[in-house]
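Protocol step 4 of 6: record predicted structures for both targets in the notebook before any analysis. Target 1:
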Amino acid sequence: MPKLNDLSRSRVALNENTTLIAVIEMGLASWLIGGRVPGVNRSPLRKLDPDPKMLLARLHRWRDEAIQAGRMITRIAVAYEAGRDGFWLARWLSARGIETYVMHPTSIPVKRDHRRAKTDRLDTALLMRAFLGWLRGEADHCSMALKQMRTPEGVAIPTNTLAELERDLARLGFIREQSRAIEKTRVTRLNEAPLDQPHAMVLMLAKVRGIGIETADMLVNEVLCRNLRDRRAVARYAGMTGSPDESGAKRREKGLAKAGNSRVRRGMLQLAWRWLMFQKDSALSQWYKARTEHAPERTRKTMIVALARKLLIALWRYTTIGEIPEGTVLRAAG
């Protein structure tokens, strides 16, 4: 017996000779779009800026390639996973004649191996297989989400529940607006402030790729403006030194002391992960890579603390004596 509002399979027959199919792996910095173009032997895969206009232009370009190959495109079907971006892109594409679906992430079957490979290309191929199965009407491939959500019994979501969701979304929008206002105020204050020592140090740190104004401001006011004696004092203040347990001839390391500034410690751990992303060729990144290349996940998390400590000391030297860490890339002027 068919279920009410069954979104686990498509109810429209699929003609692969006249249907252009595309899936999108969406990220903050870029979108990876994969397609199946009728009449074209290759499976195109393109990385785009997170711009819906560029996405629409790419779909139209693939449609033109199919027409040149002798296939008349009567249907363009696009899908992406529900997540941070929500339904706005689906509404935007639907308003421009593109058949768009939003997939439940938890409905897509994936391998449960702990160390399975995971890249944007592999995720895009997985989305394509799931979406093709759904379009063909096959079961157990994926399930689609709709803005007009329904319970398993087919009735609408209760009014109080929808109101709670709307309050949560409004609260999230308010927090984001406040964050943008704080960042704007900080930049304005830095631009209007006199070129005293803290102000100059913030601008100096902000030139390093991977360090933003907020992180630079935190480091200068919390650490670098203090008269710390040496690199050991810097590491102790940030709470990134060990806490050995000694008793007679026995000595056991109990992990981080966590007796220093917790805000600096959290900020440096986040900066250490960003450093590996934006400063891949630096000496510190190469040091971390050499020690964790074949190491288990637990070792990588332990060594990131050591990288954060070395990075903090390197930035302290950079702002005090002008010693730039080897391989560090500065932001381009302007």
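Target 2:
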Amino acid sequence: MEKFFELIPSGTNFDFVGRRKRFLLISLIMILTSFGILGVNAARRGSALNFGIDFSGGSQVRLALTKSVELNEIRGAMVDLGYEGSSAVAVPDAENQVMIRVKDVTSMTDAQEEVCKKAMLAASKAPLSEDNGFVHPNESSKIFMKFTSEPDYAGIEKAMTDSGCAGQADPVVGKEGEYPVDFSLVGVGNKIISDLDGKFGEGTVDHLVSSETVGSKVGDQLKVDGAAAMLYAIFGIFIFVMLRFDLRFAPGGIVALTHDAIIVVGAFALTWREFNLQTIAALLTIVGYSINDTIVVFDRVRERVNLDRDAPIEETTNKALNETLSRTVLTSTTTLLVVVSIWVLGSGPIKDFAFALFIGMIVVTYSSLFVASPIFLWVNDRFYQGRGHLAMADEEGTGTLLGSASSGEDGVVGGGAAGPADGAGPGAGVDIGTGEGSDGSDDGPERPGGSRRRRRRRPGS
């Protein structure tokens, strides 16, 4: 028989269950440390996480420079130019590029808006509509105008620019008798380019690489939506595992994936990496990977309990964890190779995404072996008096709320091919009480309580 590659030698007998308390203590310390770092950041930095523009609101502008300029000079210039709370950082793996973040979301103030509105009323030949003729939504980079006759678009741009509200006028289809116009203000990015060129000399900024603008209200809503997405995912996974896999394993799986998500968030808080919508996507990916890895381990535990149900549950669980150890480590290692490649070769937001997956893969491997199974044993002992696992080998089901998918009509666990009517063949069972072949009759000995349990005949028996 061809022997497959094994990273962990077969026959390994690491005492996972016997040492579960110390590993749970390590997990508890990591979780408390993560919350502690979040608290320290909130106290010292004013924010628990380095929220990106998606969550904090404001504008993030990436500029390519024609010459090297010290970051401290750029930061000082931003303050001198009136950009309060601004920050500037060098872009990794990009020469002479800088990422500037400001709280501004539009290049027009309320005072400028009033000046521009008066200028439009005075200069426009086409009268503005009395009903919402000049509207500038809060934190918007557009002004919505509505005229009662065909306007002069070039004249609109000239009047607005002369009054300090530079931008572009675009016609929009409206109702009959109405001529709506969308006036796009010069973005924050273009304004920053103009200001920096004036400060360091014309042509200092080569071009605008990218620009993002998010209002503070939108940022707050995205925070809520991101947290809700995580909670919905965890709750949905719990319901699915409880209904379709096994009720006794569901709490362990949920504790494990929650444990993984918290530690990854703690890693972002510790390294002060930007926490944005891409990070939420990475966390959801980790949650999915975590429950997948945990279910594979749990399935081996359930299979081992079916085969050796008379042995102590701690012993069979430990044996199952050792049997799946090589598979778990190999799967995580190959996944890590890809993640590390993305981390090393990627740039920008993809590096933070890969960082989240890197930490997540390590923590997921740990939790599927050292966190999920101890929780299952605790649930089995606390709520099933240490005998709940035996239902997995009984003919009444495997513990799923949808019923047993593996029990045959004759009570043989595992759904193996049923033997002939006289009990011969590979599907025949062995009576626990006597060890003799069962012929399907009702004259064999029974367990206390009146029900009978069967198990598969093992090869060679």
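Step 5 preliminary note on target 2. The first strand starts at residue 50 and ends at 51. The longest helix spans residues 313-345.
Proceed to step 6 after PI sign-off.
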